[in-house]
Amino acid sequence: MRTPRLFGYQQLPDGAIMITRRCRTTRVVRGKEQVSALLSALRSEDAQTVLSRYAGPARETHTT
């Protein structure tokens, strides 16, 4: 059985990379060096681990 993916990404027309978490945008990586570093990490490491690291800390919302 396949494990569902929590994170995804898409390269935008301007070269930036949009990172999503559960289909919601969490961060947009811009700048030639940052985008290059992200793409390099995606080629050499587990994509979900890399995207979670770039997305930053998870923000959970709790209702009381």
Brief descriptors of the model:
about 60 residues, globular, alpha+beta
Description:
Helix content is 34%, strand content 25%. It has 2 helices and 3 strands. The protein has a 3-stranded antiparallel β-sheet. The protein is globular, with a radius of gyration of 13 Å. Strand 1 (7-11) and strand 2 (17-21) form a beta hairpin. By secondary structure, the protein is of the alpha+beta class.
Strands ordered across the widest β-sheet: 1-2-3
Number of strands: 3
Helix proportion range: 25-40%
**Multimeric organization:** single chain
Structural class: alpha+beta
* Terminus-to-terminus distance: 35 Å
Q: Any idea what the radius of gyration is? A: 13 Å
Provide the residue-averaged pLDDT: 88
The helix-strand sequence is: EEEHH
Label the overall shape. Answer: globular
How many helices? The count is 2
**Can you summarize the main beta sheet?**
3 strands, antiparallel
Task: Detail the poorly predicted runs.
Answer: none
Work out the strand percent: 25-35%
What is shown here, in short?
With 64 residues, the chain is of the alpha+beta class. The protein is globular, with a radius of gyration of 13 Å. α1 packs antiparallel against α2.
List the helices and strands and how they pair.
Elements: E1 7-11, E2 17-21, E3 24-29, H1 32-44, H2 47-55
Antiparallel strand pairs: 1-2, 2-3
Helix pairs in contact: 1-2
